[in-house]
């Protein structure tokens, strides 16, 4: 008997198996996902007893190991529970104590079609087999080993072309890199130029180190070159911060012509640019980075936190001039000696063996599926690019971003109001909705529906409850 016929007969006997024969991916995962879907559809209910593993394996025409892995995966997802000799039962739903659905943290979603935990276990196993464990637990001078820098150059090749590994520095995250670049290129009290709506980590670092942020006028294509040149001359600024591709939070991408114009200003004014570019790989037909237009005037920052996972704590910084690299490393070591060797080695292995690209493809595909879901559930309200990890959502006139964020919190939703991103000037009436921080896409859909319903009605008066 063919396996397809066995599955069809098993589905007739066990209706909750519907879809196992039509799905893709490993068979054990298809069985676990069928259990999850059956629970969602009400075909299975808490307390239902599932057939013994040997019986189900026989019914499906599969080996016992496949069914055992399927049941173990379902238990890991808290869908099933074993009760010894009594058998395996559908678990009682776990009580959800977290009252707020987080749509505020910009992190990658679970990769589509992949099991991240399995990739992590496999990767760490290979690292421990191949690496010197004493070195993994030791101090390092920072900047990454030759192999780490070679992997960084390979990761950055789609953006910057062939790089010499010596030009790549491995850092413990993009925020540490940003802080070190501020220390490298400015002195206390000096001005740093930036767009008015911007990444809040820049403001935090500038405040901590006593630097003054001055905003430069921008339009839909990004910072205006004439305004930038005036600001350089007026303030004597030596440093500019830009996030030119799928900008956080507006999702705007600066076109090639504007990048060339900004690079020209940098050359004329002796300006150094921090090009923070975490989302370049998510963009369709992203323009070449500014680092290609003015390589000696740009420090290029690319983090794995947005493409793969923030837990790696690895970012790459490209600095071509030896003297600037030395100053940057001295600044970085003053507060962050090194990227964690274990996770840096894991990132290197994933890049060199192709796992990083596989993982990113899954993250990008899931992020785009979530953008499509948001476009559907927000009923045409989405105005930002349908790429990257978040939405920048302009609000109807009857809502302010602060009121909407407060009302959303009352509905169990955390969103980020525009005030968090505004360095000065007129306040945009918008919120940022992060699509990756909720692992379960069904919970994300439910949250977006609640948000859409909230946006459709005028605000009411809100009062704090006193308990």
UniProtKB/TrEMBL annotation:
Q: What is this protein called?
A: PLP-dependent aminotransferase family protein
Q: What Gene Ontology terms describe what this protein does at the molecular function level?
A: DNA binding; DNA-binding transcription factor activity; pyridoxal phosphate binding; transaminase activity
Family under the similarity heading? In the C-terminal section; belongs to the class-I pyridoxal-phosphate-dependent aminotransferase family.
What's in the keyword line of the UniProt record? Aminotransferase, DNA-binding, Pyridoxal phosphate, Transcription, Transcription regulation, Transferase
Q: Does the keyword DNA-binding apply?
A: yes
Biological source species: Zemynaea arenosa
Q: Which SUPFAM superfamilies does UniProt cross-reference here?
A: PLP-dependent transferases (SSF53383), Winged helix' DNA-binding domain (SSF46785)
Where is each HTH gntR-type domain found? Answer: 25-93
């Amino acid at each position: 008997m063919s396996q397809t016929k066995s599955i069809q007969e098993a589905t007739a006997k066990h209706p909750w198996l519907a879809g196992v024969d039509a799905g893709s991916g490993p068979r054990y995962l298809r069985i676990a996902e069928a259990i999850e879907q059956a629970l969602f559809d009400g075909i299975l209910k808490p307390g239902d007893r599932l057939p013994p593993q040997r019986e189900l394996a026989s019914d499906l025409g599969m080996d016992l190991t496949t069914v055992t892995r399927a049941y173990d995966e379902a238990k890991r997802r808290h869908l099933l529970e074993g009760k010894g000799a009594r058998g395996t039962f559908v678990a009682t739903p776990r009580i959800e104590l977290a009252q707020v659905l987080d749509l505020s943290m910009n992190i990658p979603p679970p990769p589509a079609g992949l099991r991240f935990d399995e990739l992590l276990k496999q990767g760490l196993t290979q690292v421990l087999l191949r690496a010197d464990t004493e070195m993994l637990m030791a101090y390092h001078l920072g900047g990454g080993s030759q192999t780490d820098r070679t992997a960084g150059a390979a990761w950055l090749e789609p953006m910057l072309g062939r790089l010499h590994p010596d030009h790549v520095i491995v850092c413990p995250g993009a925020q540490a890199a940003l802080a070190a670049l501020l220390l490298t290129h400015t002195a206390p009290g000096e001005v740093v130029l930036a767009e008015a709506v911007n990444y809040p980590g820049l403001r935090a670092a500038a405040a901590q180190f006593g630097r003054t942020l001055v905003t430069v006028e921008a339009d839909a294509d990004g910072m205006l070159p004439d305004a930038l040149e005036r600001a350089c001359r007026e303030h004597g600024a030596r440093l500019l911060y830009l996030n030119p591709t799928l900008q956080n939070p507006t999702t705007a991408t600066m076109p090639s012509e504007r990048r060339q114009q900004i690079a020209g200003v940098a050359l004329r004014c002796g300006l150094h640019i921090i090009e923070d570019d975490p989302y370049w790989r998510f963009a369709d037909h992203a323009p070449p980075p500014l680092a290609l237009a003015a390589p000696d005037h740009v420090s290029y920052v690319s983090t794995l936190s947005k493409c793969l996972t923030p837990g790696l704590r690895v970012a790459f910084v490209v600095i071509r001039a030896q003297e600037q690299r030395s100053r940057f490393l001295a600044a970085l070591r003053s507060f962050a000696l090194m990227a964690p060797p274990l996770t840096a080695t894991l990132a290197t292995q994933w890049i060199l063996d192709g796992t990083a690209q596989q993982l990113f493809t899954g993250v990008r595909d899931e992020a785009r599926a979530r953008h499509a879901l948001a476009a559907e559930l927000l009923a045409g309200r989405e105005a930002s690019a349908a790429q990257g990890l978040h939405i920048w959502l302009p609000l109807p006139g009857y809502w302010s971003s602060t009121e909407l964020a407060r009302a959303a919190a009352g509905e169990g939703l955390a969103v980020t109001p525009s005030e968090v991103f505004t360095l000065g000037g007129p306040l945009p009436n918008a919120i940022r909705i992060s699509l990756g921080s909720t692992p379960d896409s069904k919970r994300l859909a439910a949250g977006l529906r609640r948000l859409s319903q909230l946006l459709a009605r005028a605000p009411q008066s809100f009062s704090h409850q006193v308990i």
